[in-house]
Design brief:
2 domains, 31% helix, 388 residues
Amino acid sequence: MSSRKYQDSMPLAPLKIVAMNNCREIGEKINKRIIERRKKALENTEKPSFMTADYANDNYLVSFDTLRRGTGEGRAVIHESIRGSDLFIIADTVNHFETFSMGGAPANMSPDDHFNDLKRIIMASNGHPRRITVIMPYLYEGRQHLRLINESLDCAQALHELIAMGVETIITFDAHDERVQNAIPNNGFDNFYTSFQFINEILKENPDLKVDAEHLAVVSPDEGGMRRAVYYANQMGVDMGMCYRRRDYSRLENGIHPVVSFEYLGKPVKDKCVIIIDDMIASGNSALEVAKELKKRGAGKVFICATFGLFSDGVKTLDDAFAGHLFDQIYTTNLCYCPPEILERPYYHNVDLSNYIALIIDTLNHDTSVNDIMDANQRIHELLMNRR
């Protein structure tokens, strides 16, 4: 990729974006952001008109359909030419609120259904785009990223399938374990972090929050998230702790060894505000158990932050925990679908990443480096310095 600056370059090819039905809302926001960026960029350009003819359009979203027959069999149809374009496909593979009709009854789409629709769109784009980039904020089967016994290695297999279909680069956010990219060592795999956006949102919503080791701490809910928590703690200059999950390895429940207790490892949190940082909230039980343990130790405000708010078991458990003063605020992003009921909760804050993704797409389309975008150190440092 070129080291040229964004403002000194032109796109590699005309930009086209497919926002799958499972992420239509964020796709429209990204499209709007890019339109605004490019129209503003053209106000001061001196490039000849033939170089900017396909640059500032009124829409970059591709018209398409993903159709189903009565049996549930699917197909994808793209309604416009994408020959020679720089094609970006955005997919939310964990949108379990998306439905289709099968046998005359509605059926909720599984991650497998979403992934197959993504592959259908790639197959339908056989008009030979110049380049195909897939953006999967939540990496499909990202939690099944390694093999411990005789079991499937789903994430690695999915990456191989996409590369074999002609995808040049796969982009994800806060991967459960970014080492999964080793499955495709000779192909593009970019893992972007959301640390700056979370810190910025927390500080904006809590202007009186003191960011120092005496008043604030960061806690990882398990050993797998320690690296993420260490980064946050180092950037903010505060202490880091971890909750160790003690499991019963003598039995299995729903395919996993059940957690029998949480044990906190770290410095005292009495009277401190605590940020619990994780990559996802599914049922919310794990984060709430950690919050309960911290409250028992005298913690002050508790903020729960997770990149992906799946809320697969609804929000009643969270409502009850909030009423019981186990936590104060929850932050997740709009990188995956959030049910409308969580958006209405007084404790919930949605971190908008549409501008971030628009910047990534626009930069890559110009075939310029995204290193500055991936490195949030300077932006976090400036944010904290301005606060002090």
